Amino acid sequence: MSEPVPTPETWERSPATAAPPPALVVPAPPTIRVRHLWHRFANRDVLRDVTFDVGAGEIFGFIGPNGAGKTTTIRVMATLLEPMAGRVEIDGIDVTLDPEAVRKVIGYMPDHAGVYDRITVREYLEFFADSFRVPSISVVDAVLELTDLGKLQDRLVAEMSKGMKQRLQLARILLHDPKVLILDEPASDLDPRARIEIRDLLLELRGLGKTIFLSSHILTELSDVCTSIGILERGRLVVAGPIHEISARLEAIRAAEAHGHAPPPRYVPPGVRALVPTPAAQGAPASPEIAGAPQAAPAASAPVPATDPSAPAAPPQPHVPAPVPPAPSVRRVKLRVLGNPEAAAYFLRGGPGIVEVSVLGGVVHVGYQGTETKIAEMVTHLVHRNIGIVGVEPERNELERIFLEVTRGDVQ
Amino acid sequence: MSAQTGTARAAGASRLRRLLDDPNPIWIRELRQSARLVRTPIILCVLSILATLAIASIGGLVSINESPATTGYVLFQVFFSLAYFVVTFVGPAVAANAIASEREGRTWEAVILTGLRPEVIARGKFLAAYTSISMYVVMLAPVGALPFLFGGVTATETIVAFGFLFLIAGLAVAFGLAVSSKMNSLRAALVVTLICAVIVSLNVYGWLGVGLSIPAHRAWSGVPDGPPVWLPTAYARAPFDLTYVLCLILLPIVATALPAWFLYEVTIANLTSITDDRSTGLKRWFLVSAPVFALCTAAPVAAVDKYDETAAAVAGICVLLVFLMISVYLFLGDSLGPSRRVRLHWDRQGAGPLRRLLGPGIIGTSMMQLGGAVVALLMPTAAGIVAVMNDPGPTVKVQQILLVLLYAGSFYLFSVGFGAFLRARSSTALLSRVLLLAVHFLVAVGPWIIAAIAGIFASSSGRGALIVAAPSPIYVFVALGAIETSGEEMLVVASVIASAVWGLLGLLFLTLARSRVKGVIAAHEAALGESDRILAEEDAAAVRGMEQAAAAAAQPAAVASPTEPVPEAAG
User: Fold this and answer.
1) Choosing a second label site near B77 at 20 to 30 A (CA), which of A81, B300, B492, B506?
2) pTM attached to this predicted model
3) Cβ–Cβ contact A116 with B under 8 A
4) Stretches in chain B below the pLDDT threshold 50
């Protein structure tokens, strides 16, 4: 028998929430704090009230279609662009007020950055070591070793592959041992091997305690490395937080809608109130029905009902850390069968972990909980009942699914 | 500590030692890059061979009919003229490549984010470009020794000429760097720099070279008139006296130091963020250079004949006005007021009122310009009046000088006030500059065009009708003539009225600009204050929320604990 899909109502009564509240842990201040960020180029708002936090030691994936405002946000964080409104703090330092101090704690790798071609790898790093005022020459050796560029240290930069140049860029931004790494499309234009190497390097850097903020279009890769994500669309942050938490929230919404409940209220980051004209005044369509942000600490993230931006008298909603109910993630698979698909659906319904089964256009759509072995079990089950399987199409990657669900595909 | 050179900075070492042990990182990196550029030695060799062939050919041709000494002097002139053009064309082009290429190659942001100050970047880029152009001069140096084979020039002249070549190379590089610092495109930087370099270098060659050789010949008979490279000859042949010190030591120092300082400050300002302090350096330069320039314009009054004193004073005021007008355009790039960041830095560093006055802010800048202009304009005026006081009939001459001063001062006041008003109203400095230039053009030329269209120049009313051109600053020369002529008092009165109107308009625009700037800054501060308030409220609410959650978590535990059986007691 299929278990009932948990809804927000059932969560309220679930043992998980009925249990004594966990001991309150004072969350560490976020390393990156972006609050009510607005920016405009000419007459176009490229960032609209973007608010999110990134905790220490996180790998935060910043996702969005082209023109969504990712690079603008990153350039503001990197002190290369001044915001028109809002505040961005890196390690507690305001990027607008003290960019010099911020530059000491960040390492920024821009998208398609250039390199000096007519010097060797070592000379390149030595130049930046001097520019960063790195106190010891041994730092260059350490960074060469960390990024595995030691063997190439005497090679001219011009003779390096694109992947190696990206690696060199990464080495450059590690020279002054920054707390925060800001990477704009670090794996763009790289071949699969170089991407894997960069990914592994990022995981290694996270292990060294770095907070990593990266934007990318390659969602599968982000899902491998990121602990949290933020999705930006048309300059507005539509969702942010740990991936599993966002996934759980989406499931809750889907379940609520499937049971005929109104969707939960729009989620916004704590205390969000527009500092500049409201979305309606900007003529922007309302964002998808969820929007959240990681709170002071990722574990403490929780959606908070939106305040009315048009009501200035309303005090900002305080953020009360609350435990997130464990939401079983429902995955989907499409099965193409020989013969009658209704028969296949009949055999699958009620199976262990099978949440829902439907037939659409001759294809059996199955919602299930568990790992991919469940698909193998389904196939075996059907084959044993003499139903031939001609195609199995698992659902998209979880991050891709979230992305597609919360964005509308609009491009500015 | 320098990773590039592998040297460590010794504590307490001298400035030179520190410079050698810890050199500018950009300079060292660019040297390493240049060393791997294959085309540089080829270009240098080709240039040297061509220069040698040219000098040898010219020497051969000249020596057919002229004495060896003349041939040597001609070769000296030809070589240093060629070297001058190489330096003034190649130097800016090399420097133009410096920053624009980094911006275009997308390496600039990486450099900026290292935390290197704009001054360090500018110096590194300058040193790199200067080293490059110096290599050209050094490669050409053996060719410069060819005139010695013929005689006619001394070693001192040649050494001084090379010294000036290096000096001019420095200015040329600084100019290219200043242009490059403003440009994002390498091609645009090269085109603009080369066009400007060609125009400037040809003019300098013509006016300061050939042109100044004639008065130099009058002052020192040993210096021949006509040859453009006369300055080294003057150093070698002029008698050492006060004129020598003033004209051959002080004046060249001022003539190179002030432009070099200006170009350095412009480069730094262009490399500095718009919300940082881009003003202080340029204002310091103005406050020093305005009186120095005024002194230079006043000095000829003492040197010219009695009959030319008034003309020299008037010319001095006019040249000074041109300088001051250029400064008006320069300072239109200033921001309306200091940003929060600048104020924060001032507070941290305990900046005094003078430093704050020299900081960003268009109204403060306007006041500083007016103060500097008053001091500067008084110098040639005072020099002129003192000079003509002993002449017969000094009243007319004094009136003439004062009228020019009045017109220059009032028109400058109008320009400063209107410029500040435009800056306060428009969103960009470029727009303000274009609008001010258009107004200046219309004011200067417009009345004359109207007069020409109306046929006043050919009418029977004659000069009296020129009164319609009184708003134009050029009209002051009509008024100067009218002072000396009886029956043309109206022309003089018109010029005084026009001056007064320009002055009043300047004050009016300055007042309007001030109120506008105050309003904009107040609105900006209010918006920032509101942002801060909202963000602080959010922070406070978050803290309250966490405190409430902590209290809620602690309460059940506190209530439950007394009723719970103590394990030991239960046992």
Assistant:
1) B300
2) 0.81
3) yes
4) 562-571
